[in-house]
Amino acid sequence: MGFRRGLLGCLGCGGDDYYEDPEEQSPAAAAAAAGGPGRRRRAVMNLRSLSLEDLSRTLATTSLHAFTLDELKAATRNFSASNFLGEGGFGPVYKGSLDAALRPGLAPQQVAVKYLDLDSDGVQGHREWLAEVVYLGMLSHPHLVKLVGFCNQDDQRMLVYEYMPRGSLENHLFKNLLASLPWSTRLKIAVGAAKGLAFLHEAQTPVIYRDFKASNILLDSDYTAKLSDFGLAKEGPKGDATHVTTRVMGTHGYAAPEYILTGHLTAKSDVYSFGVVLLELLTGRRSVDKRRRGREQNLVDWARPYLRRADDRMLDRIMDPSMESQFSARAARSAAAVAHACLQSVPKARPRMRDVVEALEPLLALDDDVPMGPFVFTVGAGAAATEAAAVVAANGARRGRRGAGSAAGQVACQVGRARGEPAAQGRPLGEERREAAREPPRRDLRSKEPWKLLLHGMCI
Prior knowledge:
Blueprint: H1 3-6, H2 27-32, H3 39-48, H4 52-58, E1 65-66, H5 69-75, E2 84-87, E3 92-98, E4 109-115, H6 118-138, E5 147-151, E6 158-162, E7 167-168, H7 169-175, H8 183-201, E8 207-208, E9 217-219, E10 225-227, E11 234-235, E12 244-245, H9 257-262, E13 264-265, H10 267-283, H11 299-307, H12 312-318, H13 329-342, H14 353-360, H15 382-399, H16 404-418, H17 429-436, H18 450-455
Parallel strand pairs: 1-5
Antiparallel strand pairs: 2-3, 3-4, 4-6, 5-6, 7-9, 8-11, 9-10, 12-13
């Protein structure tokens, strides 16, 4: 059939998708959409039938750069193994550097270059590559990863993104064994990702992300969340249509149950996926973990009974133990209520992403009931003893070991004796932790509907 011809249905009714785009049915329908709100929709529609040679010219009105293969080889040191960042469904990803020496007028910046593996991805790979160029070329938002450019030279298909130094949320939650994300950072990531989804759903032509998951949320240097990988994104329903019918694609554990069963895709499908990721942030557990037993293998099935309670017992059971209770109980209860609302089995019962943002964003300011962390107070051991005791106490607390306070005291005493100073005195660490963990009385919210309370600001 040829690649040029195969592009015709890359984002619409071609291939394995069953949704028929009304704007492609007649020229009259396209002419009727000539108003302002349909401008981007017409642009997307026209890109579906473009040849690769015309693609760069059509996107010339955007800030995207059409790179050559030689330019990207130079930027990545010929795709050196030392520049290799990882590999996803699209293909390998390499770190690169752009500057004016590569192309005059190009601002110096670090980038990530995704290299499409044509041999394994075939037509679906071309479809996803073009979808990313179209959507990220037309859309811009602080919580969407920026597409710098692309390459379509000969049989090469590449995407050039801004470099996200913190990597993916998945790596921080499940693969970083040395440190745990603090509560404030988790909440910031959740709010940022929610804002990105809300922007897509409320664009002039609504976009359904369809593959919202922890590995597709990238983090910049200050942990600002940005959505990446738009290969499975779809335009939302138009006119009187309530949904888009398409082949079921996505990731097991994140996809909404009604989408899996019927192929009916709506913005509420993304809301469900957001609820799963929010639950991962709260619990530190993967959406699907075959290493666990029985019902615990599926995160939603395991957590749903606890989410209905919205009380302290629920928090004790589901919250990530690696946070060591260093979080606001009020904010955690409210976030759990949002997750519960997003994970409703009936799509219409789920909130809009705009409502989710309005419910989560005020929680960033809730820190007055965060328990104080453990500490050791020493006297007469000098600065070195105090520093040594603090380091040992922090390490012991992080690993959850008992007796960290006594170990810290022993180190402080040893340093003090070496300097000819009297032994350090202090209170037992366990007593300090018990006092620090005391919290002010909380209102009993069990008799109320958590999501309704959130919408009216009553949980705060």
